[in-house]
Design brief:
Blueprint (H helix, E strand, L loop, with lengths): L2 E8 L5 H14 L5 E9 L2 E5 L5 E5 L4 E4 L2 E3 L3 E4 L10 H9 L8 H8 L1 H8 L9 E5 L6 H8 L3 E5 L8 E4 L5 H9 L4 E6 L5 E9 L2 E4 L3 E5 L6 H5 L3 E4 L6 H17 L7 E7 L2 E8 L9 H8 L4 H13 L1
Parallel strand pairs: 1-2, 1-7
Antiparallel strand pairs: 2-3, 3-4, 4-5, 5-6, 8-11, 9-10, 9-11, 12-13, 12-14, 12-16, 14-15, 16-17
């Protein structure tokens, strides 16, 4: 009997358009001989099932069901393709845990920790994971530019603490540009993190649970045409993404061990993609994404292809792991 799969997409953040693209790739890829697939759009003002004719049917939030032609449809599993809130920060994970509905993402606590850059780096530090020097600000805090620059140096990065796709991120070269960068970050979140600039090779590495085991995918080297790997570089072709990365065997081994360690220390499940920069020959962790982009151009699917894992197999495995 075919399983009913809800593919949730959209979300409440600036990333909703990217999420819709990811969700539609999942919808177009999943094997319809195995699954009945349903596109579920999650927005602040509505949760709806969208059919092939773009007609909308409301989702009953009491039990996450839909009604079509007086027939109630419930779901065996949820494929989570929401980047940002509420799909990547733990809210949907907690909701589905309460309803006892399996889903393809990590658990609520892991989602909450990894979505909060400051908390994630703090949790990993005792395990010897190297990171950039950092300075934290909450909205309303007194801004001491001298102390910030003394702590992290110039250039530095100002980032929204809980945001993805490089929304709310600025690279600051001069002290007089710091306040504007802080203002930009606070438009995305009420917490920000300011980090020292790490000058070195940037890589992205996917780690997934594949056929019951932790699997590190081939590493991608990021070469941005812009000043850093910003939104344009990620989504508008202003970067080279080289898979497998041009690393020495030693560098490759270092990143593989570290990426797997981060995944297992955090007790992750499902997809993840972590970003590292080599400084003084050692990889430093920038952040982890637990709902990475799943479009045909996205990094994780590129890495899976390099590992001879098709999109269909990648997505099917995610559902099978969730159903376990």
């Amino acid at each position: 009997m075919k399983k009913n799969i809800a593919i949730i997409m959209g979300g409440y953040s600036s990333e909703y358009k990217i999420s819709l693209k990811s969700g539609n790739v999942v919808f177009d890829t999943l094997d319809t001989s195995k699954y009945n697939t349903y596109r579920i759009h999650i927005f602040k003002d509505k949760w709806v099932y969208v059919n092939a004719n773009d007609a909308e049917f409301p989702v009953d939030k009491n039990n996450f069901s839909i009604s079509i032609d007086n027939k109630t449809i419930t779901f065996d599993c949820v494929f989570n393709a929401i980047h940002g809130s509420p799909g990547e920060d733990g809210f949907m994970q907690g909701y589905f845990a309460l309803l006892d509905i399996p889903h393809t993402s990590c658990d609520m606590y892991q989602a909450g920790i990894t979505f909060n850059k400051r908390d994630c780096l703090s949790v990993l530090k005792p395990y010897g994971i190297k990171t950039a020097e950092s300075y934290f600000l909450n909205f309303g805090d007194t801004i001491d530019e001298h102390t910030i620059i003394e702590t992290v140096g110039l250039p530095c990065f100002v980032k929204a603490n809980k945001a993805g796709s490089s929304f709310g991120v600025s690279k600051v070269h001069k002290q007089e540009d710091l306040q504007n960068a802080i203002d930009v970050a606070f438009k995305e979140d009420d917490e920000i993190i300011i980090e020292s600039f790490l000058d070195g090779v940037e890589v992205s590495v996917g780690v997934i649970t594949y056929k019951g085991k932790t699997k590190v995918l081939p590493i991608t080297e990021i070469v941005s045409e812009n000043d850093f790997f910003d939104y344009e570089a990620k989504y508008l072709g202003k970067s080279q993404e080289i898979t497998p990365a041009r690393l020495t065997k030693e560098q490759e081994n270092q990143v593989n061990i570290l990426a797997k360690k981060v995944y297992e220390v955090l007790k992750m499940k499902g997809f993840s993609r972590s970003e590292f920069i080599f400084k003084d020959g050692e990889p430093h962790l920038l952040e982890m994404n637990t709902i990475p982009g799943l479009t045909l151009e996205s990094i994780l699917p590129q890495q899976a292809a390099s590992a001879n894992i098709t999109l269909s197999d990648l997505f099917d495995n995610a559902i099978e792991e969730a159903l376990k």
